[in-house]
Amino acid sequence: MRYRRFGPTGLRVSELVLGAMTFGEQGGVGASPEECRRILDAYADAGGNMIDTAINYRGGASEQIVGELLAGRRDRFVLATKYTVTRDATDPNGGGNHRKNLRLSLETSLRRLRTDHVDVYWVHLWDRHTPVEETMRALDDAVTAGTVLYVGISDAPAWVVARANTLAQWRGWTGFAGLQVPYSLLQRDAERELLPMAAAFGMAVTAWSPLGGGVLSGKYASAGAPGPTRLDPGSIDPHDRAIARVVQAVADEIGATAAQVALAWTRVRSPAVLPMIGARTVAQLVDNLGCLEVSLEPEQVRRLEAATGFAPGFPTEFIEQTTPWVLGAAAI
């Protein structure tokens, strides 16, 4: 496992992030506390050091399990959690990105995680009702207090993140060092605005659902997926299934698994992208870790991307097409 700086900071994180959304058996199929320990131990043994959870994962069980598992070794990990999602659906102030929810959510998470600080605190979702100035100032106060070391934002428009970071620069507040977005061969929307924006600010990008909700894991490449699966194979879009078949074909060529190829592709796009691997078993985790040994040839990358049929659209394509018109002989 190699390590990369977390955006423009000096913090070093492993090139694969362990997602703890599967930690706990509440609310659906997940991992038992015992299996979670085995998963975390295997991840740590491979050199992984960043674990990502949220206040709402598994009704809070994820944070509790992570806190228990990190006892005695907390400082060896980069611990990240998120706030925004409501703590109490009956409380009008139970959710959102405002100062009150931030404070109460952070207190709750610290208690569950059995720590006095989190290394990375994510805004989980853009809250259209809270001024971005309030959120950034409240986050900066948490950093000043020492209960948060770095901040990031997940699932927000590029213009919101850019405005927030510009505001932070102007006022001397702590800016977002990381961006968290869904990113896979099935969902490349982040390439339109979010990834270029992150690159401009030097932000790290943690990619959630890099296996497309499991579709790219290899289980669903054919119509009849054997054994019990999380998804109904018949519900998978034919276009997504076609992409999965190309992923499987490339995997067969190089002697890797489909999941390893799908994860390797996310790493090809940019060194700033850190795929988040979420596993319910140690076997799944070990398979995912194998992506670090996968090297894709340029022709294979082109085949994978051609299968998606993705187009960046306006304004990216328009700007590229008109570059010779704008720059003339200086166009590259």
UniProtKB/TrEMBL annotation:
It comes from the Bacteria. The keyword Endoplasmic reticulum does not apply. InterPro entries: AKR_Detox_Biosynth (IPR050523), NAD(P)_OxRdtase_dom_sf (IPR036812), NADP_OxRdtase_dom (IPR023210). SUPFAM superfamilies: NAD(P)-linked oxidoreductase (SSF51430). GO terms for cellular component: cytosol. Keywords: Oxidoreductase. It holds the Pfam family Aldo_ket_red. Residues 15-307 form the NADP-dependent oxidoreductase domain. One of its GO terms (molecular function) is oxidoreductase activity. Transmembrane segments: none annotated. This is Oxidoreductase. The lineage of its organism: Bacteria, Bacillati, Actinomycetota, Actinomycetes, Micromonosporales.
